[in-house]
């Protein structure tokens, strides 16, 4: 794991922690806080620091301000931060291989830190313009965003909302992610090690950040003498199989198929095993999920559970005022998991 160099914790972050510990946790709902001047004197900080701390507590629903009267602890305990909200782009993505490990790690970490894990899935047909409203509606905590489809515009809109966010697919603000460029390099190293000369690279949609990074890492590490054909398909096993069948009608069989996800690798195996006269062809995937174990193909371990646990820890720290200003990013190095199976037209792993 590569951790960022952390600058000193901002003074207003430390003041937030002190206010919670010495004041907010003891006040009844609706009780007033001391004036800004009194807080400055009590904690020996500037008025700017006090105002930044109070504004952050207002944004998180822990206090409210009344013009001319000061700040008060919120009356509704439901507005207190209690949730880590895990957001995916569509409901079907919750069933993708490996996701169950992430959800389990998120839930365990959230419970240990005293939060509830809430899962939200966005319906893409609602339009991206509605994503921010959907993610932030009735939010009593922070967001864990496992959404590759976020544009830079949407990311900036989320940042303007001043909602605590940790990104799992983007190198923005607070982020925890697997190094997909290195994952691509690991797949290329497998090709070189096995001395394959003709490769089919079967990837998820080209505009996704993880896909771009994986393809770039693979291309950079692949020798020029190796022929590589690239095809993109959706995160769907049947569509991956159909994409490969269509390609095989147009070209000769590859020496191996490198897939950018275990779901696509499974689809590739389906197509290869049904192809008339096909020779056994090695297949590799990404995510080292139950599909890789069941179908016995090589795959790249993205350390999904570790990434998820770190993301939940980071978000809890962010909500509680225990992190430095962004950017603060954690990048996990993937690992190769070798399995020696190949496809066969009879549907038997050899």
According to CATH, the fold-level topology of the largest domain is Rossmann fold
Q: Using the 3D structure, state the CATH architecture of the largest domain.
A: 3-Layer(aba) Sandwich
Number of domains: 3
Q: Any idea what the shape is?
A: elongated
What level of helicity do the residues show? 40-55%
Nearest-integer average pLDDT: 87
How many helices? The count is 12
Strand runs, count: 14
CATH class of the largest domain: Alpha Beta
Strands across the major sheet, in which order?
9-8-10-11-12-14
Q: Measured on Cα atoms, how large is the radius of gyration?
A: 24 Å
CATH superfamily of the largest domain: Response regulator
Write the H/E string, N to C: HHHEEEHEHEHEEHEHEHEHEHEHEE
Sheet-strand content, in percent, reads 15-25%
Instruction: Please outline the major beta sheet.
Output: 6 strands, mixed
**Structural classification:** alpha/beta
Q: How far is the first residue's CA from the last residue's CA? A: 36 Å
Query: Poorly predicted ranges (pLDDT <50, ≥5 residues)?
Result: 1-7, 345-350
Structure write-up:
This protein folds into three domains: 11-78, Arc Repressor Mutant, subunit A (Orthogonal Bundle); 80-178 and 304-333, Rossmann fold (3-Layer(aba) Sandwich); 180-302, Rossmann fold, CATH 3.40.50. Helices cover 40% and strands 19% of the residues. The protein is built from twelve helices and 14 strands. The chain has helices at 11-24, 36-43, 47-59, 99-113, 131-136, 152-160, 180-194, 209-221, 237-248, 262-274, 290-295, 304-319; strands spanning 63-66, 70-73, 83-88, 116-121, 141-146, 165-167, 174-178, 198-203, 227-232, 256-259, 283-286, 298-301, 328-332, 335-337. The chain is elongated, with a radius of gyration of 24 Å.
